[in-house]
C-alpha cells in the first residue's frame, strides 16, 4: 500500500516538474489560466469555486500570472465593484501549447469507471487519509473527481 502511495506521489511530482519545465508554470497556475480561458471575464470568487481553491489562493496565483503578463484584472464596465479576469495573448499562447494536465487525464479515466467503482475508490482514499491522520488537513483539491463521486459518497456514508 505504501509503495502504491509513493508511486502516486511520485507521478504527481514528475508531472508537475514536466509541466514546469515545458511551460514555466505550476499546475495550479496552468489550471487558473485554463479556467480563465474557458470563462473569459470570470470573477475571482467564481474562479475559486470552479477549481476548488480559496479566493486567497487564487488571488496569490493571479498576482504571479499578472506579473508575468499572462492574465489581467479589469474593472467591469457594467458594475465598477466587480473585477473581471482575462487572458493576455501570452496567456492564450501558454494554454494553447501546454500539455494536458494530469488532473484532466485522471478525471477522464475516473469518469469512465462504473459508478460503484468510483464510489469504492473514493471511499478507499478517504479511509487512507484517515489512517494517515490526514483527514483534517486542508488540501484544496487540484485533482477534483466531480460531483457524481462526491454525491455517491455522501449517499453511501449516510447509510
Automatic annotation (TrEMBL):
The HTH marR-type domain covers which part of the protein?
A: 1-130
Q: Does the keyword Transcription apply?
A: yes
Q: Would you say which domain of life the source belongs to?
A: Bacteria
Pfam families in the record, alphabetically? MarR
- InterPro entries hit by this protein: HTH_MarR-typ, WH-like_DNA-bd_sf, WH_DNA-bd_sf
State the UniProt keywords alphabetically. Answer: DNA-binding, Transcription, Transcription regulation
Q: Can the keyword Transcription regulation be found in this entry's annotation?
A: yes
Q: Which PANTHER family match?
A: TRANSCRIPTIONAL REGULATOR, MARR (PTHR42756), TRANSCRIPTIONAL REPRESSOR OF EMRAB OPERON (PTHR42756:SF1)
Would you tell me the protein name for this molecule? Answer: MarR family transcriptional regulator
